[in-house]
Amino acid sequence: MRGWIAAIGAGVLAGCSGGATPAGEPEAVLGAREVVLAIGERVAVPEAGLTVGFEGVPQDQRCPIPWQCLVAGNADVALRIDRTGTERPYTVVVLSSDRPELIVAVDGVRLELRSLIPQPRAERPTPPGEYRAGIRISRLAP
Fold it and tell me: 60 and 125 in contact (C-beta within 8 Å)?
């Protein structure tokens, strides 16, 4: 099963170079700081021939502000990953904030969820347009 190995991860996004692809997406540099995406945004990773998009937050059960919880809770983030320049179907991968030691590996590229903001609030659900996911994109160690 070449290519897609899904594991679950936690946390803030990888670095963005500020460049843009012909499709108008910003570009990420492998191993750079982190990329922060809003739902519906995508980032090209030219070195890896991939485009990564933030599809949504299927579940957010983190402890809401101002509650004091015994457990921090968990949120899941769905990412869409496309192979650049091919007709290969995309894959949606869910990263989970409760397992920071795990990541998603795609064709030699490591995707790690590093942050998810904002923290939920007790008085209202978080509108999807407010979410930002931080993802670190790097090359897998050989």
Answer: no
